[in-house]
Amino acid sequence: MYIDIPVGRSDLGGWDMGTTALTPRRRPLVADQPRPKPEPMLQLRNIHHGYELGGRTLPVLRGVDVDVRPGEIVAIVGRSGSGKSTLMHLAGGLASPDQGDVRLGGQALSAMGPRARAVARRRQVGFVFQAFHLLPGLDVIENVAMPLLLNGESRHRAQDRARPILDAVGLSERARHLPSELSGGELQRAAIARALVADPSLVLADEPTGNLDSTTAEEIIDLLVSRVRGAGL
Ligand code: ADP
Ligand code: MG
What we know:
By secondary structure, this protein is α/β, with parallel strands linked by helices. The protein has helices at residues 84-91, 114-124, 140-150, 155-168, 184-196, 214-230, and strands at 15-16, 42-53, 56-68, 76-77, 99-104, 107-108, 125-128, 202-205. Helix 3 packs parallel to helix 5 (184-196). It binds adenosine-5'-diphosphate and magnesium ion (MG). Adenosine-5'-diphosphate binds next to strand 2, strand 3 and helix 1.
């Protein structure tokens, strides 16, 4: 599937979160193909979510619908505080919406408890957190290999699989460094490598180029796009 994604623009389309609460704006990034569309990998339906603050609820998402099909790359854009991270956490099963349905690979995440959601996420989703969340006591390659260990692979095999990904994000030389010894851009790339290592069917990346200079940002976007294409989707 041909994907045309403009790099380095804030108006990529997808869902415009520039309003007070998130409302969907349909402008797909991917050129429609003549063949029938595959089932969505991720489906959000009528998602409502808010946060309790001082006895009151701050509404953040009000009736959001999102479909992401295999091979699609979707950008969620909007100003700070509009609910982008909230939406991604719900999409990846890190939290459950106040209302609405989240389906991941055909499974209803919103009907599961936290433990079952964690299993579904581990099998299918690579998450790049805005704040990275690398484990401070582990070096870079151990962090990147962690999703494979959690999926039951041996330490040796997990690190063998982590190496080419570290290479792809330009971090081979930092494999044995601790997160505290890395720059912001290096932490970002380590977090991206960890999200990609287990060949997830969905990558959720929260501002994955926020800490990178524009050249490195383009390289990282190219890497993410080529992984989607390389997966034969
Ligand atoms: P974005 O990622 O678009 O910057 P967020 O999803 O992080 O936005 O936040 C959306 C809104 O929800 C913001 O106003 C933020 O302050 C609020 N918010 C996010 N997380 C929490 C939380 N855990 N408790 C209370 N309010 C929160
Ligand atoms: Mg955010």
